[in-house]
UniProtKB/TrEMBL annotation:
Keywords: ATP-binding, Nucleotide-binding, Transport. One of its GO terms (molecular function) is ATP binding. PANTHER family: ABC TRANSPORTER, ATP-BINDING PROTEIN (PTHR43776:SF8), TRANSPORT ATP-BINDING PROTEIN (PTHR43776). It comes from the Bacteria. This is Oligopeptide/dipeptide ABC transporter, ATPase subunit. One of its GO terms (biological process) is peptide transport. The keyword Cell inner membrane does not apply. Gene3D superfamilies: P-loop containing nucleotide triphosphate hydrolases. It comes from Sediminispirochaeta smaragdinae (strain DSM 11293 / JCM 15392 / SEBR 4228). Residues 5-255 form the ABC transporter domain. Pfam families: ABC_tran (PF00005), oligo_HPY (PF08352). SMART domains: AAA.
Length: 320
């Protein structure tokens, strides 16, 4: 079995408080029945509009949020059952790179302290070994070892994201969840960071879960893509298959917004009417039916099951 991570039936709801007594009046259904596998040294991407549950899925896999239901099988073990201490030990093997390198690095700490912290928490290395690791990691991410004496605020956005990546990778994790790692950066810097992530994946044999709304980047970096809508994966396929034969109407609409990605000659832009429905009050039936141009009666009442289309390609739609 070459899969490093298998997520099965993941669910995460957030209570919605309100009224004079601030009681729970409902739930934001952030993640519903999400399942996927990620093979070793490959990249699985989650795409979709903001608010569709991509980030919550990533955070829940790392147990930064507690899942309500589901299995998170990492390296053959279901870590959803792990207590605090086992999870703390596991954390060095599963790291996260966040969207905003401006918030994720403490401005009052020198770079060497920021990079030493995960090693002090998770390893028993000596100070000398830690210094060696810091120098090595800074150079791996394309920075000079001498930068360790400076503070995060002295660096540009791109350099800060390199530091965040160094911090995530310094404990030698197997899995890295990267949540929109370039979307806070200048466009000119984005491809450098993507290329760095791909180079590091190769050198360090990393497995990625990559979260993004940028389909060009996703096509470039992923082995397999899952398209999320209202907390659910509605279509999943190996990357080239997804871009060649998008089968769910939502995927077709997403791809049509990026004309360079459309297969064939027809470059019709599918405009999605309306907004993503409120995840605290999702529609009955198909979650996409309020915006789908093919919606039928059945779509308004019956949740479509996933249909296998080809090897590794499935989608959930009554048309299939
Ligand atoms: Fe559209 Fe119906 Fe398919 Fe949902 S199930 S995507 S509403 S056709
Ligand atoms: Mg997000």
């Amino acid at each position: 079995n070459k899969s490093l991570l298998a997520v099965e039936g993941l669910r995460k709801y957030f209570p919605l408080k309100g009224g004079v007594f601030n009681k729970t009046i409902g739930y934001v259904r952030a993640v519903e029945e999400v399942s996927f596998c990620v093979n070793k040294k490959e990249t699985f991407s989650l795409v979709g509009e903001s608010g569709c549950g991509k980030s919550t899925t990533g955070r829940t896999i790392l147990r930064l949020e507690e899942p309500d239901e589901g299995r998170i099988i990492f390296n053959g073990e279901d870590i959803n059952g792990y207590g605090k201490e086992s999870m703390r030990r596991m954390r060095r093997h599963m790291q996260m790179v966040f969207q905003n390198p401006y918030n994720s690095l403490n401005p009052r700490m020198k770079i060497k302290a920021l990079l030493a912290e995960p090693l002090q928490t998770h390893t028993v290395l000596s100070s000398k070994e830690i210094r060696g690791k810091i120098d090595e990691m800074l150079e791996r991410v394309g920075l000079s070892a001498s930068y360790k004496e400076r503070y995060a605020h002295q660096f540009s956005g791109g350099q800060r994201q390199r530091i965040s990546i160094a911090r995530a990778l310094i404990t030698n994790p197997a899995l890295v969840i990267a949540d929109e790692p370039t979307s806070a950066l200048d466009v000119s810097i984005q491809s450098q960071i993507i290329n760095l992530l791909m180079q590091l994946q190769d050198e360090l044999e990393l497995t990625y879960v990559f979260i993004s709304h940028d389909l060009n980047v996703v096509r470039h970096i992923s082995s397999v893509v899952g398209v999320m809508y209202l907390g659910r994966i509605v279509e999943q396929a190996p990357t080239e298959e997804l871009f060649a034969r998008p089968s769910h109407p939502y995927t077709q609409a997403l791809l049509s917004a990026v004309p360079s990605l459309l297969p064939g000659k027809k470059k019709e832009r599918i405009i999605l009417s309306g907004d993503v429905p409120n995840p605290a009050d999702p529609p009955k039936g198909c979650p996409f039916h309020l915006r789908c141009r093919y919606a039928m009666d059945r779509c308004r009442t019956e949740l479509p099951q996933s249909v296998a289309l080809s090897d590794g390609h499935w989608a959930s739609c009554h048309l299939l």
